[in-house]
Amino acid sequence: MRQTLSFIPTLRETPADAEVKSHQLLLRAGFIRQNTSGIYSFLPLGKRVLHKVEKIIREEMEAINSVEVFMPALQQAELWQETGRWYSYGDELMRLKDRNDREFALGATHEEIITSLLRDEIKSYKKLPLTLYQIQSKFRDEKRPRFGLLRGREFLMKDAYSFHATPESLDKTYDDMMQAYSNIFRRLGLNFRAVIADSGAIGGKDNHEFMVLSEIGEDTIAYSDNSPYAANIEMAAVQMDYPKSDEQARQVEKVSTPDQKTIAQVAEFLETTPENCIKTLVFKADDELIVVLSRGDHEVNDVKVKHISGAKLIDMATPEDVRELLSCDIGSIGPVNLPAGVRVFADNAVKSIVNGVTGANEDGVHFKNVTPDEDFTVEAYGDLRFVTEGDPSPDGNGTIQFAKGIEVGHIFKLGTTYSEPMKATFLNDQGKAMPYIMGCYGIGVSRIVAAVAEQFQDDSGFTWPTAVAPYEIHVVPVNVKDDVQRETGEEIYEQLKAQGFEVLLDDRKERAGVKFADADLIGLPLRITVGKRAAEGILEVKIRETNETVEWHKDEVQDKVREFFKK
Length: 567
Known about the structure:
Helix content: 10-25%
GO molecular function: aminoacyl-tRNA deacylase activity; ATP binding; catalytic activity, acting on a protein; proline-tRNA ligase activity; transferase activity
CATH superfamily of the largest domain: Bira Bifunctional Protein, Domain 2
CATH architecture of the largest domain: 2-Layer Sandwich
Number of domains: 3
Number of strands: 31
Oligomer: single chain
Radius of gyration: 29 Å
Keywords: Aminoacyl-tRNA synthetase, ATP-binding, Cytoplasm, Ligase, Nucleotide-binding, Protein biosynthesis
Main location: cytoplasm
Protein name: Proline--tRNA ligase
CATH topology of the largest domain: BirA Bifunctional Protein, domain 2
Shape: globular
Distance between the termini: 20 Å
Subunit structure: Homodimer.
């Protein structure tokens, strides 16, 4: 491609609203442009990167017998109402009405659509298993779009769905997908880890996220320093023994604690430690207010609270909710003398506390000498806190460390989460109607572009790996007004194209400094500069990954290029 005929609007200045390097460089190098918050156009270079990512994904999907389809982005509300997600998905679902006042959603995901398609077409176990996938735009009304392509309101996604007659069949496809995803991210050159994760609004049980390790990642990965164990911090299990004090339980005592609202303040005021305080939180679990307890130095994990309570939606109760329930402010709540019927859940560490401190459900007042199961009742104990660095690894091997990650893929075992409420059934080998057993597998295609861009860069611009670089070679005649330089550049350009290489020719009438700066910014793997020694047949070649420069004679360019790309 000739640069004069393409659309590559590079920028000299970094856009003020671009927070991370990948976003800055994708804008500056002319790969993308923002249309509005969280919505981007892919320009020619960006589209070529997208295309290469899609090609790798398609190859790995087809290798495990996944078949590509294309489903509508506009989805009727009735399908989402069958599963209940029309009401539970939340504000991220973009909803609209047509001229006849019928309700629709722009596809945030496609479980309902694919399930409705299969239930009308596949009636026998003989046609299972079946895995279908698509690459399509998704829409989610993010409250705070940020980091360019990493968190947008419209984005490109590969979503696959598998249908099975038996759990064993699902297990095999899940394992195949796990391997295929690992192959995809390795081919892209990404530094990633597969981690245990929460299913969130998708549903189902067993699932893994694929995280690209990055300091700008919005997710925290908890991993063992001595084993393969890794999990999203929301799902990292805490497996610790909390020995109970042999101290004798004393009589509960009410004490005044004016203006002491935080655990740290209360502990200091009462001359105790945060470990001896019982932190009390009120959550809204679906439509019910529940109480959750943890040790004062621990943080409650709301995902684990959702699981132990059996709720579909979990959120912190508002100050107004708390006052209506307990007649006090948040800083003074506690588990003693709660209203009848309020469910109480506690982290395992709470059970070991003897003569602890809690709020008294009265502003500016706390209880001393509170002991669980003597002074208040707990419905269930469980692992309800966030893991911390230094905790034992749940697999018993090593200790937990933290790292930041960018989620680029997520795979789920859905089971019958969608097939049962949607009455999507097949006849098994005994003629009995059974709900499909399903799996779901997603990759953020446009997010991958940002993740690769974040990993492959230096102070001058991108250092794209060959697998996803928009072009392989940048041919740069320094002065196109010089007949020898221009003609030599054209000759090399045509020769390399004829050999099947992807070549970008900078035929612009720009100064050398502008051309070199743009070439570094765009970051193609190999740059061939046709300069003052072109008359001698000598060319300067730059390897963008290492910034190493060498000289080649023009007669050896084709052989050297084949050797470089191992073609």
